[in-house]
Design a protein that fits this description.
Elements (H helix, E strand, L loop, with lengths): L10 E10 L2 E8 L3 E5 L4 E4 L10 E6 L6 E5 L4 E5 L2 E5 L10 E7 L6 E6 L4 E5 L5 E3 L10 E7 L7 E6 L2 E6 L2 E5 L16
Antiparallel strand pairs: 1-2, 2-3, 3-4, 5-6, 6-7, 7-8, 9-10, 10-11, 11-12, 13-14, 14-15, 15-16
């Protein structure tokens, strides 16, 4: 049903979100334009004039159990969309860097939070009512450009977190870091996508 309906700029991310019971929207990020929202008939585009802070979106996600869409940008932080309104979080409001490359939603054992991988600022965690934590090269990451995030559950040992950076892949498990670079056999230095 969406064939031929996508605006001209190149797409770099998309997802479908049920915003109200029985009514879904297609969300698409367009480089050099902003975020598009398609209801099956028409597009609504969000750029700086419509509340999304940038024309360079990098990633989209829907927060589980809600109708909130989170979108990162290359140069203006990240923003959360809910019920027609964007809420922006950037370096002026506590984000370690305005470039956002990756997200990971973590249920956190009943205390959910969002991991945010940034361009030059490492990782920050955004909890509901908690202060942000930042992890960077001083805490064990191989680089502060964090392009990919993944958590893999384990029954006996707890969760394993993977962080793709511009200088290798980092694993956090059992309160310890393990870094994989080209010296440890990683085929390339820069890791963009992690999937289990």
């Amino acid at each position: 049903p969406f064939a031929g309906a996508v605006p001209a700029p190149e797409t770099n991310d998309f997802l479908e979100v049920e915003e109200t019971p029985g009514r879904s929207f297609l969300w698409v990020s367009f480089w050099n334009l902003g975020i598009g929202r398609f209801d099956g008939q028409a597009w609504q585009v969000f750029g700086p004039a419509q509340g999304f802070p940038s024309t360079y979106p990098t990633i989209l996600t829907a927060l589980p159990g809600s109708q909130v869409v989170a979108a990162g940008s290359y140069d203006r932080g990240l923003a959360f969309y809910r019920e027609g309104t964007w809420q922006v979080l950037n370096a002026e409001k506590g984000l370690p860097h305005d470039g956002v490359f990756s997200f990971l939603w973590d249920p956190g054992g009943g205390h959910p939070f969002l991991w945010v991988g940034t361009r030059g600022g490492g990782i920050t965690t955004l909890g509901l009512g908690d202060s942000a934590r930042v992890l960077d090269v001083h805490g064990g990451l191989p680089a502060n450009d964090v392009q990919a995030l993944l958590v893999t559950p384990a029954k006996e040992r707890g969760e394993t977190y993977w962080f793709g950076t511009t200088k290798g892949l980092a694993r956090w498990r059992d309160s310890r870091w393990q870094v994989y670079t080209r010296n440890q056999g990683l085929p390339a230095a820069s890791v963009w996508v992690t999937r289990s």
